[in-house]
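quick one, 655 residues, struct below
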Amino acid sequence: MMTSTDKQTLEMEERPQEMGGEVEKKEELGKEEPEEVEREGWGNKMDFIMICIGFAVGLGNVWRFPYLVFKNGGGAFLIPYFISLFISGVPIFFLEISIGQMLQVGGISVWEIYPILKGVGFAGATIAAIMCTYYIVICAWSFFYLFSSFTSTLPWGDCYNSWNDIYCNDPALQDNCTAPTGFFCTTNSSIYLNQSEGESPAQQFWEKRALGISDGIDEVGGLRWDLVGCLALAWVVTYFCIWKGVKQTGKIVWFTALIPYVILLALLIRGLTLDGASEGIKFYVTPDWERLKSPTVWIDAATQIFFSYSVGIGSLISLGSYNKVRNNALLDTLVVGFVNAGTSLFAGFVIFSILGFMAHQQGVEVKDVVDEGPGLTFVAYPTAVYYMPGGPAWAVIFFAMLIMLGLDSQFAILEGLVTSLMDEFPQYNLRQNRAVFLVVVCSLDFLLGLLCVTEGGMYFFQLMDSYGASGMCLLWVAFWECIALSYGYGIKKFYNVISDNMGFTPGWYWPLCWAGLAPAVSLGIFLFSLIDYQPAKYGESYYYPVWGEILGWMMAIVSMQWVPIYAIYIFLTTPGTFKERLHIITSPKIQPAIPEKLEDESTISVEAKKSDISDTLNANSLPPPVYNELVVENEKNGVTTTNGGLENKAFSGDE
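---
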């Protein structure tokens, strides 16, 4: 029987004779088309590793990981954390890099390997678009605090500012305070208030000066123009750092990814010299083994891994697609995985040494000064910095670190998104007009992000973070990624291809995780999250109205719906009988790119040389995909189907 590859070769040889003069006409028309821009790659291997480190190591390591450690039993939390790391986080990270590298296309087009689940790519791109909109707002807040730090006295340390009210509890006023027990002295010496009603100067600076926060999501209010300016600055920096392509971005991240480690080390050294630091460290490392019996601990650990490694949004696939086909993706995965986990642990020591100092200053236990998310970053840390000798200098250093951590991740998310769109829609010449396309994307995201810098913007920010780019959405996408690759395209086929490309077999552990452990963990946690659903809230007391929760769920569904809706759409729009449709939409429209020849064939392991498809790949691998009209001919049934997509004639009726 003639193979599909033989048929493809025969068709290519015969077609010019069959078409005659039409070939010349098409060639003439082709001359009028814009010149194709060559798909670039990373300058060198370390550029790719550095951007992956910058992508994975972000604000979550600084503000989310320490809180989860505190919440879930201190050192005991590290057990489910590392289990989740090894059976889901690192394997899916390896999967995404490898599949992008194998096919040399972005995070949407790559799922042409199993067309019925191509909605996975659109779902990831939607999550990435939401993240681009709100994640950079954190950088805007950091810029605001950075500019506010250029002063001899930090503005969030006392209660004598225009934004403070009578509920501001200034620690300096309490030294000679004669208020009754349980009360504190206000700036009006004749008025005492209950301590439960008090707010720290840093909290009031954050909510009243920086955010100008309203009473609820139904009070959107006006724009905070200083934050608008900071948001525009963050987008301008992002644009000029990535507009020329990955070669330029790869060089910039050497600075933005490494400098935060220098700053963290300086903060750790300073933190360990502060009074009370040892109590904070002790709190961080002391395990509460009873907490391991709670399912919530395991849920939080797995969710943090998905957040931290940024899997499920297509960006890693897009970044991996700029690698050479024979790149050692396993080494990249292990390096980034080690650095990411190590950074989280290291940042924990930095953070808890500072929190121990804060607890000592306030005369409370460490657990009483720990907060989650923005509250930890923009209230707790500024408070600690204020009491440090040379506070303004440390504030500048700290917020500069936050900006670099945030921008690193923003670079990678945005690059992954635009790469996915450029590869999926080549007919619009987006790659040829990359600079203009980026201006459009950045401008659109800036306009959408303005909602987050209104007086009610913080409530919308929390919704986007809790629903639009939540762990639930990432788990959903990760599950279907594993299913599409393992049971759609074929786990054995995929494993053999990457083994052939890298020159060695990674080991049985990885396909075991891709086909079994990772999807099981993803689905299990996704279902448990639905069963144990907790409505979003801001702070300790504000709960969203019903319409606010509905808005949040709409943000989540807008990405998750792509998987079933696209599967139904492609089935209904594909001509043919039920069996023919099913065959077409479950057959790959894209083949692995041709790997470059190894200079020394002896570097290929014995196992890789014996892989089932090694020989056929070397002889018959297709080049990177050509974006043309897809024509699938079923010779047995005489049916011709046409779908827009990637050119491939590898699935005829004889297969």
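The chain is about 60% helix and 5% strand.
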